[in-house]
Amino acid sequence: MFAIIFILLVIALSVCTVVSKRSHRAIGTSVAILTFSLIFPVIGNLIIISSITRLPAQIGYYVYFLGMDAVVVSLLHFAFRYCVLSWPSPKHRFIVYGLVGADIFQYVLNPFFGQAFSTEEIVAEGEPYFRLVPYLGQTLHRVLCYGILAAVIIVFAYKAARASRINVERYSVILFTLIVFSIWQTFFIFSRTPIDRSMVGFGVFGILIFYFSLYYQPMRLLDRMLANIASDMPEALFFFDGSGRCIWANAPGLAMAGVDEKELDQVKLKLAQTFGDYEQEGNNWTSRRTIGPEDHPQYYLLEKRELKDERGRIAGSYLSIRDNTWDQQHFEQELYNSMHDSLTGLYTKDYLYQKIRELLLRKANVPYMVVFVDVKNFKIVNDVFGNAFGDYAIQCIGDWVQNGLSSNAVCGRLAGDTFGVCLPVDEFDPHRIEQTLADFEVKKDKISHHVLIHLGVYVLTEKNMDVSVMFDRAHLALTSIKDDYQKHIAYYDDAMRSKALWDQKISADLRSALESKQIVPYLQPIVDPSGTVVGAEALIRWNHPEHGFLNPNSFIPVFEKNGMISEIDRYMWRCACELLARWKDHPLFLSVNISPRDFYFMDVPAELKALVTEFGVDPTRLRIEITESAMMTDVEKRMGIFHDLKHAGFIVEMDDFGSGYSSLNMLKDMPVDFLKIDMNFLSKSQNEYKAKTIVRNIIQLSEELGIGSLTEGVETPSQYQVLSDMGCKLFQGYYFAKPMTVEDFEVYVFSKRSA
Ligand code: C2E
Ligand code: CA
Ligand code: CA
Prior knowledge:
Blueprint: H1 2-22, H2 28-50, H3 54-82, H4 90-113, E1 117-124, E2 127-134, H5 136-162, H6 165-191, H7 198-214, H8 219-232, E3 236-241, E4 246-249, H9 251-257, H10 267-275, E5 285-291, E6 298-308, E7 314-323, H11 325-339, H12 349-362, E8 368-375, H13 378-385, H14 387-403, E9 410-415, E10 418-424, H15 430-438, E11 441-444, E12 447-450, E13 453-459, H16 467-479, E14 489-491, H17 494-515, E15 519-527, E16 533-544, E17 548-550, H18 552-562, H19 565-582, E18 589-594, H20 598-601, H21 604-615, E19 622-627, H22 628-632, H23 635-647, E20 651-657, H24 664-667, E21 674-678, H25 679-684, H26 688-704, E22 708-712, H27 717-726, E23 730-732, H28 742-754
Parallel strand pairs: 13-14, 16-18, 18-19, 19-20, 20-21, 21-22, 22-23
Antiparallel strand pairs: 1-2, 3-4, 3-7, 5-6, 6-7, 8-10, 8-13, 9-10, 11-12, 15-16, 16-17
The structure holds ligand C2E and calcium ion (CA) (2 copies).
């Protein structure tokens, strides 16, 4: 019968070993080692009780005793892990393992010296049984094993004594198991009863350790923890029993209900006084309550949950009440901040768009418009008067946008110095707005500054359109206002839209057009008074595959606006240098145009110098045409650039002289070699006599200043005659020839010259 019990124990311990090894708990491996080592003494005893001759019985004893060594070592290991301890010093560990090693060694010597034990044959329960006869070695073995066992018991006792109340259970359970097991074992050893029944204790001990360390959760610990958490929770908690009676409330709960622990039966009544009829259907619900005065509301979140016992019957319920006021206020503040601009208090762009969408849905039958408001050169206000004044100016403009346009407007700040408004068309009074904007002053302390505000207006034709597109259109209208101090409002029309689309299209086409030679220079001859061609002006032409032959006026302004002009000009200058290199045996010059915008995007003199060097062209043969307007802005810097160009040997011409601000006075300071006078501007003037007088004077004056003169736009023989008489040096115009392809020009000039 004992044999069967031992076999069952071996199986049970093996299962425990495998399960604890696979367990994810940290203690799992130590438990596995312990239960595994416990298998050996049990097997040893199984062998002993099944032996009918001496030899197997002796082998059984060896397995038993060596197994015991393994058991005490793994027990020690387990104790350290379970109690989260480590060896006091490596020395202690060395001594203990050394003693165990010595014990094993003396069993190895036993067959030769017989100093540990021998066996005597007796009859037990009618069967032969080989009982142990212990000697000195065996006594030492027991001292060692009991010593270690005692040490382990002390460790657990110490831990149990020192642990907090909640944790005592954890250690006591193991301690108790250890003591019971030790007493049982001792009893059998010293009673020398045949068949060591304490082996059953070994097995049970292993299984108990396995259970307590891996599966047992001290309920008191959990209860305690949960109770502590519930008491410490910032929200109010109320527990109710199955009949709905309040049985417990934490401190915040008592405070909220205004009761003490003895008045728990009043909790429901008190809560109803605060929150009104707050109870909902059933025992599982969540509800929000707002109480208190409207300007200082308090927000609460009420949650009720039912508690069930292990059979699924309702055992009670609890109610938690959380004061959400801070969260809610914080949330509302954040929400407000995300929708309102902090400087002006107006809506932010995204929120404005949303508000406009809502407005248009609500007032589907009212005609509306959107207005894009922009402050011109606002950067200067910041730079000159400082950011504080700049901020103040933005606030003033924001005020006007909000109150000055219409009382029914929705408005917001789109970005830095731009605002967006949506208002009924009827309420937009352009006359009044123009009057206000003509004299819009921002005054603060001693500073007073006139700010220039422009409005782009788009009257909505379809209300389903994306609001951002509406503002794009209003903005497009706004960009059509040039730096004009008279006009402050511009209206979007469809021509603007097609223009914008056109601009986009040709900008997208430019790169490939340059590569595929759709863009080429045309040359218009320039002649001297005798009619001989002395040079030409290179004028750009674009042979567009879809739109046909494009006049420069249809694309140059677009590229000047978006900066792509510098790519075009660079290309034209290169073409001109190529031609001049090709005509190195002919004394012809070529004039190229330089856009005022080129100066913003590149170092013009450096580019030109590099080109003439690359093609080995004499710089005097490349004439540079710069319009007056290019000379007027940033005067100092530009003068430097022109001097630089002249110094490098280029001939600089002032293009379109007479068309713009032409200050004759400035001429004396201008480092130009030629004035290019445009007949077209003059012929527009009604009074031909006056025009002639002006031209005559310009020519005379420039001559006195040592500047040459060239008239362009010469269309008739009489013009040519008159201008020659006035002393003009060079001529260009349809009367001589229209701009032509390079091939035509070469035929035209070289055949004429050779003729
Ligand atoms: P622009 O520099 O004043 O060029 C002279 C313009 O007058 C040319 O127009 C030319 O064809 C035109 N023209 C010449 N003779 C006569 C005439 O007898 N009567 C009339 N009515 N017009 C005449 P185009 O080629 O259409 O060029 C227009 C403008 O485009 C140019 O005016 C120039 O400002 C610009 N442009 C042309 N090519 C380039 C270039 O490569 N780069 C830059 N930045 N601008 C260019
Ligand atoms: Ca020109
Ligand atoms: Ca011109």
